[in-house]
C-alpha cells in the first residue's frame, strides 16, 4: 500500500512533442505529490508538485494532472526539448515520509 | 543560498571495510533525510531527522548502518562493515520545518564496494 507505481520505464520523444509520465498509488493518506527531475551525477530536483484537492497544476511547460478517485497522477511536458532529457521520478508523501516511483528515463531527440 | 553539500562525491572501498558519508544541509533546515538510490531506482528513505532526533529510522539496517546528527546541523551516515550490495548512491536531503513541502537534495555520494 506504500508503493507508487510509475510508467513507462523509458520514453523517447521528438523535439516539440509531448512527454507523458504516469503514476498510481494506493494509500489515500498521501497528501502531497511532487515530481522530481534528475540529471546524471546530480541529486533529484523538485520540478512541480500538487496536493490532492487540486485536479491540475501548470508551471510553464510542465503540467500535473491529478485524478483522486482513480488514485493516479501524471506529468505532461509540453514542447519537449533536448534539455529535458533526464530521469523523472514521481513521489507521494504520507506522514512526512516520501515514497518514490521507480523513475522514467526520458530522451528528447533533437 | 548554498545547497545541500555532501562529501565525498565518490568512494571505492573493499568489502568489510568501514565507510562514512557527510552531509551539510541548507542553513536553517530542521529536517534531514538520508536516502539510498540503487541504479535505475527511486530514492528509498533510510532515516529522517527532526533537528538532532532520529524520528524515523525504521528502514535503516541497524546491524551495519548508523547515523548521527550532532547539534541538529551536519549529519554522518556510516556503514561498518560494507557489503557488495551496499554499492549505490547515498543521497542527503533537507527541508525547513513546519508545513513546508519541498525537500532539497544534495548531489549524493556514489559508493562502490569491491
Give a quick set of tags describing it:
heterodimer, A: 110 residues, mainly beta, five-stranded antiparallel sheet, 11 strands, 57% strand, B: 114 residues, seven-stranded mixed sheet, four-stranded antiparallel sheet, 48% strand, globular
List the helices and strands and how they pair.
The complex is a heterodimer of chains A (110) and B (114).
Chain A (H helix, E strand, L loop, with lengths): L3 E4 L2 E5 L4 E7 L7 E6 L6 E6 L5 E4 L2 E6 L4 E6 L8 E9 L2 E4 L3 E6 L1
Parallel strand pairs in A: 2-11
Antiparallel strand pairs in A: 1-3, 3-8, 4-5, 4-9, 6-7, 7-8, 9-10, 9-11
Chain B lengths: L4 E3 L2 E4 L5 E6 L6 E7 L6 E7 L2 E4 L8 E4 L6 E5 L8 E8 L8 E2 L3 E5 L1
Parallel strand pairs in B: 2-11
Antiparallel strand pairs in B: 1-3, 3-8, 4-5, 4-9, 5-6, 7-8, 9-10, 9-11
Task: Provide an overview of this structure.
The complex is a heterodimer of chains A (110) and B (114). By secondary structure, chain A is an all-beta fold. Chain A has strands at 4-7, 10-14, 19-25, 33-38, 45-50, 56-59, 62-67, 72-77, 86-94, 97-100, 104-109. In chain A, the strands form 2 sheets. In chain A, strands 2, 4, 5, 9, 10 and 11 form a 6-stranded mixed sheet that branches. The radius of gyration of chain A is 13 Å and the shape is globular. With 114 residues, chain B is mostly beta strands. Chain B has no helices and 11 strands. Chain B has strands at 5-7, 10-13, 19-24, 31-37, 44-50, 53-56, 65-68, 75-79, 88-95, 104-105, 109-113. In chain B, the strands form 2 sheets. In chain B, strands 2, 4, 5, 6, 9, 10 and 11 form a 7-stranded mixed sheet that branches. A 4-stranded antiparallel sheet of chain B has the order 1-3-8-7, with no helix packed on it. Chain A binds chain B through residues 6, 32, 34, 36, 41-46, 49, 89, 91, 93, 96-98, 100-103, and chain B through 4, 31, 33, 40-45, 48, 55-56, 91, 93, 101-108.
